[in-house]
Amino acid sequence: MPLLLLDLDNTLLPRDAAFRAWAEDFLAENGLPAADLDWLVMLDGSGYVPRSTVLGATKRRYGIDHSVESMLGHYRHSINSHIACPDSHASALRAAREAGWTLGIVSNGGTLPQLEKIRLTGLAAMVDGWVISEEARCVKPDPLIFEIAARRCGFRPTGDWTARTWMVGDYGPSDIAGAEATGLRSVWLHHGRPWAERGYRPTVSAPDLPEAVRLVLGAAEQPTGARTFAAGVPGRKRPPRTRIAVPASRLAPSSNPSRPKAPFVQPAPFTRAVPLTPLKPVAKPVASPTAPPVRPSVLPPVAHVRCSDTSAAAG
Length: 315
Fold this sequence. Notes:
By secondary structure, the protein is an alpha/beta fold. The chain contains ten helices and six strands, in the order βαααααβαβααβαββα. α9 (about 170-180) links the parallel β4 (about 165-170) and β5. The chain starts with a strand and ends in a 96-residue tail after the last helix.
C-alpha cells in the first residue's frame, strides 16, 4: 500500500491567506492604515520570520503600548480563526484514500499551534498520522522526520518503503530537499513561482494540491482495496494518530479496539479574542544635540524554518 506525505502550511492549508486576513483585521481593529497590509505580509515572509520579529517591528512602527508577549497572545488566538481546509483539498484527499493510499502530515513548527490547525480544519479525520517538528525534535529536511511519519502511518521505514512513498510540499529547502535526501519522489507546489534551487529538483511540480494528488495517482500503480475516510476499515487496523509528546488532554483520543470510534464532527468556529485596545503612541525621547548618532540595528540571519505562528522558529 503506497504512502502520501503532505506538508501542512501552504500545502494542505492556505496559511498565507489566513495571515493576510488576520493582518487586515489587525489594522482595522486598531485604526491603522489599510495600505500597510502589504508591509505586514512582506514582513511575515510566509511564516519563516519569527513571530517575535514580526510583532516587534509592528509595535515599533505604530508605537503600540502593548508588550510583544501580549500581542503574540492576541495573534495566536486570532490567526487560526481565519484558516480552513478548502473543499477541493478535502476532495483530493478523499480521492487518494479511495484509491488505497495512506496519508500523513509532515510539518515544521510548534506542536500546539500546528495540532490546533489539524483539528480545527478537520484534517485529523482525513489522515492516518502526523508528525510536527517540535515534538519530534527534528526538522525537515532531516530524513528522520519522514521516517517518523512513515512509522506513525503504519509503515516500517525499511526495505523499499521509499519507492512507495511521495512527498508533496510548497517549500523546496525543507519539503523537496527532505524528500530527495530520504529517497522519496516529490511534488512541488509552485504557486506560480519559478524553481530556484540548483542542487536538486522535484520529481514533478503542480500549481495546487488537487493537481499534485492527480499527478501522484497517475504516476503510481493503482493499488487495490479502496478505502474511505471512515476509521476502522475491515481487514486493516488503523494506526494510532496521537503519538505526540504533549499532555494527553491536548491530544485526540487514542484508538480503542473495544469500542467504535466516534464520527468526526466539525468543531464550532474559533472564537476570536478581544481586539487590542486603541493604540496609544509612545512619546519619543528627544535626542541630546551632543549625543552620538544612533547606529541602526541589524537583524540576525533568519533560519529557513516556518515559524508556524509561534514566537520563534521551532526545531
